[in-house]
Design brief:
By secondary structure, the protein is an alpha/beta fold.
Length: 332
């Protein structure tokens, strides 16, 4: 399938930061499910302290391990993208295992769809339940719908970013964007739209990449030729909640005018305020509610610019201007 001699079909890029055993499982699974395509393997280790890069080098002699400081998930992937030479680049989370199908199936599907710049596949959780990996782009109305628990109201389920119709995941579909735990990008598309924006230290980097791909005329596609298990950790607590608030606001200001960006932030704030209120009511009865109250309050403070994000990334890597004034100062 290679485009030319010595050109691999697929460059698999895995960014690690500790989590040695899960990273090894991810690599074993992907390699066992390669199928009949040629691949190169690149691991970018972001300052692991548990021997992750050494363990990978000891087990896989053909995996290139790059040791880099921890500058964020986007920056780590970009280091791998820079070394990649394949026709497609698979950005693979270090907590993903192939469940059914082969990477060769995915390459063949993409070869027959030259308009597709970014693709993902069926994702399930550790319990086997479908993960909603297809999403709609953020908007004031959708984010307000999510803040008002639209997922719980059948008539309003489309008034949110998540695609929650299970039957849609059984067929090929072109959503606005797909979750970045398993993201296969055509090298030609990357050459035109640029790498991930490194200002997104964690979260929303895949929304931004999909938006730039669509703006450049590439399709984003869900291809159910392969299914994977994503052993995802929670992102709704501690620093991760505040980091998500920062990344969502950064995205809003990058891709929207000032008024629309502020409307998105206001819609997100409604959700934080409602959850803060519920947590305050539950706090006297449930110790976990006090922790949730603290986390939601910090995330809201980051969202409205009254607190710094837990993690700060560098300048844009895609050549675009930095986010405007509302994202400066406290930087959400």
């Amino acid at each position: 399938m290679s485009a030319g001699a010595g050109v691999p079909d697929l460059s698999v890029v895995v960014v690690t930061h500790d989590g040695r055993e899960m990273a090894l499982r991810t690599l074993r699974s992907a390699r066992a499910s390669l199928g009949d395509v040629g691949a190169e393997w690149i691991v970018v280790d972001s300052a692991s302290a548990d021997g992750t890069p050494e363990a990978i080098e000891a087990e896989f002699a053909d995996v290139e391990v790059l040791r880099r400081p921890n500058r964020g998930f986007a920056a780590g992937n970009n280091a791998g993208i820079e070394r990649a030479s394949g026709r497609y680049v698979l950005l693979l989370n270090p907590d993903v295992e192939v469940r059914e199908g082969t990477l060769g199936d995915l390459v063949r599907a993409l070869d027959s769809r030259p308009d597709v710049g970014i693709a993902s596949v069926v994702q399930v959780g550790s319990d086997g339940a479908l993960q909603y990996s297809m999403r709609r782009f953020p908007s004031p109305l959708r984010d307000l719908g999510e803040s008002l628990f639209a997922a719980r109201w059948p008539v309003a389920r489309r008034l949110q970013e998540l695609e929650t119709r299970g039957e849609v995941y059984e067929r090929e579909h072109s959503p606005d964007w797909v979750v970045g735990a398993f993201l296969c990008v055509r090298a030609e598309a990357l050459a035109k739209i640029g790498p991930l924006d490194e200002r997104f230290f964690l979260y929303s980097e895949e929304i931004d990449l999909c938006k730039r791909a669509r703006d450049a005329g590439w399709d984003v596609r869900h291809l159910p030729v392969l299914s994977v298990v994503h052993h995802a950790g929670r992102r709704d607590g501690g620093d991760l909640m505040a980091q998500l608030a920062h990344s969502r606001t950064l995205y809003a200001h990058k891709h929207n005018g000032p008024l629309r960006a502020r409307a998105i932030r206001a819609a997100l704030a409604v959700g934080y305020l409602l959850r803060i209120g519920l947590s305050a009511v539950m706090a006297p009865l449930w110790p976990g509610a006090r922790r949730r109250l603290r986390d939601e309050s910090r995330a809201l403070a980051v969202l409205v610019g009254r607190a710094e994000p837990p993690l700060r990334a560098g300048p844009a890597a895609d050549g675009r201007a930095a986010d405007p004034a509302p994202a400066q100062g406290a930087r959400r």
